[in-house]
Amino acid sequence: MNRIGNELNKLVNRSLDRHVRLAVTGLSRAGKTAFITSLVNQLMHVSTNPRLPLFSAVRDGHLLGAKRVPQIDMHVPRFGYEEGMQSLLSTPPTWPAPTRDVSQTRLALRYKPQRGPLKLLQDTATLYLDIVDYPGEWLLDLPLLDLDFYAWSKQQAQVLKGKRLTLAQDWLALKDTFDPFAPADEALIEKISGFFTEYLYRCKAEGGLHWVQPGRFVLPGELSGAPVLQFFPLVWLDGVTEQQWASAGEDTNLGMLKSRYRYYQQHVVKAFYKEHFSTFDRQIILVDCLQPLNAGPESFNDMRQALDQLMQSFRYGRSSLMRRLFSPRIDKVLFAATKADHVTPEQHPHLVSLLQQLVNEAWQTASFEGIEMDCVSLSSIQATEPGFVEYQGKQMPALRGHTMAGEAKTLYPGDVPKRLPSEAFWQQSGFDFVNFRPLGLQSDEPLPHIRMDKALEYLLGDKLR
Ligand code: GDP
Question: Which GO-annotated molecular functions does the record name (predicted)?
Fold first, then answer.
């Protein structure tokens, strides 16, 4: 009888154990790797972690502990938590190396259920948490599913101005070597695609720009070097009519570009949404608002445009592209302004309201049917300590930390604008921050952070009741 009871209990446990897939994204260097490393670290320390007062499951003592367990999706690379912690614990501490592809890690969270059938049937339950990390650049590709190669080329031609036009010169210089109606020449296409890809890299690295399409070209992951990443928009075909364009044979240069573009749409963009995106339950989108404030108006506006594009993946209105193609199930999205420790604490509310403004348009679109959204500012791994300095007889807020080169520094990085920055802001442009290295810490203490507990409460609080 006892044995049957035990078996029954196990069965109940198994069927009632629950599972949540939390996706973490953001453009490159937004802070995904730091965020996931901290998230896992905070959860691994729940029983002794005094730094999570806003996370109700820990505050009220319902979350008993967390353990890392083998992930189920064998084909997705593992997130390098140990490697990240090793970097942070080394002397001097360094930042974890970022991941460049999708990666995943799984935690089992043991908790005391507080309500519902679980409370009646079990003393403790397990919530399996899959944390999936993927580059935000991949979301910039969603609109490609609605554009054929002609329309995409036209769109790319329209954005070639300012910094982009300057950075594109080497690629554009090859236009006379390319006859779209000549027999397909793979080597030539590979060469010109190389220059186009270089242009995209330079947009990010030199131009401080974020909106780059196709997103996989700059973060290729396992597709690096594959022909599916060898095509480019034909931005210089003003004299060719749409009809001529459509009638180009499969065996021409243009035919090859079109077929690679279609392959990219079907096997790269669609596959990501089908295999990954449509399996996510919760999403956090990390945004580094501070770097574009440092870099200037073009970079800032470009990030805004990139965020708008990225948000299209969360428009689930009936007629939306998303709904037509996939059945997404994300019910909560959190936007987080990262690296809040780069600015003094009284600026944190400004950071949140700036982020709110950045995502507001898309947020307001009523098509966010049934998705809850919120904004926070946080620091995944706090690298500075706030304090005050005396300046002209007054106490002024300041930050203290060590630069990457190890030099101790106390500074006031500047005011964060509460609203989208005006012309006047850019003219005064008093904003300037330096990169700090992480604080040194002991291996048994949780990572210092700002408001990770608020993010945890929003993303997981209801799942642990
Ligand atoms: P990813 O490309 O989105 O994975 O970005 P990372 O997590 O690698 O972060 C990029 C860089 O931003 C790191 O190397 C750090 O220099 C910095 N960073 C990330 N999170 C924080 C944070 O919470 N505080 C500070 N001061 N810097 C951070």
Answer: hydrolase activity
**Contact predicate 321/145, CB 8 Å:** yes
* Cβ neighbours of 402 (radius 10 Å): 18
How confident is the model over 112-151, as pLDDT tens digits? 988 766 666 668 889 999 999 999 999 999 989 999 999 9
Tell me how far the alpha carbon of residue 116 lies from the centroid of ligand 1, in angstroms: 39
Containing H/E element for 348? helix 348-364
Tokens at residue 202, please?
């330079």
Range list for CATH 3.40.50.300 in the chain? 17-134+280-381+440-464
Q: Residues enclosing ligand 1, CB less than 6 A?
A: 26, 28-34, 95, 98, 338-339, 341-342, 379-381, 383, 435-436
**What pTM, to 2 d.p., does this model score?**
0.90
CATH superfamily of 17-134+280-381+440-464: P-loop containing nucleotide triphosphate hydrolases (3.40.50.300)
Using CA atoms, how far apart are residues 351 and 45, in angstroms rounded to an integer? 28
Q: What residue owns the CA closest to ligand 1's atom 21? A: 339
